[in-house]
Specification:
The chain is an all-alpha fold. The chain has one domain (2-72). It contains three helices and no strands. It has helices at 2-25, 30-52, 55-72. Helix 1 (2-25) runs antiparallel to helix 2 (30-52).
């Protein structure tokens, strides 16, 4: 339960930080805020998708990609 709450605290911080970063880095109007919110939501969505994939599959895929790049040279 504590890990679940911690993950949602981190996700909330990302949702808060996204519009702030968009405001200061993209533009100082609604477009910057919308871009920041969109990027924050995409980051959280990708994190949730990666969380569903078993760790051994991620490691095997990474090793396969590295070995494939080495073999291609």
């Amino acid at each position: 339960m504590e890990v679940f709450v911690f993950i949602w605290i981190i996700r909330s911080m990302i949702i808060i930080a996204g519009p702030v970063i968009g405001w200061f880095q993209i533009s100082k109007d609604a477009n910057g805020i919308l871009v920041g919110v969109a990027v924050a939501l995409v980051v959280i969505f990708v994190e949730i998708l990666i969380e569903m994939i078993p760790l051994d599959s991620i490691v095997a895929g990474g090793l396969g990609a590295i070995l494939g790049l080495i073999a291609a040279k």
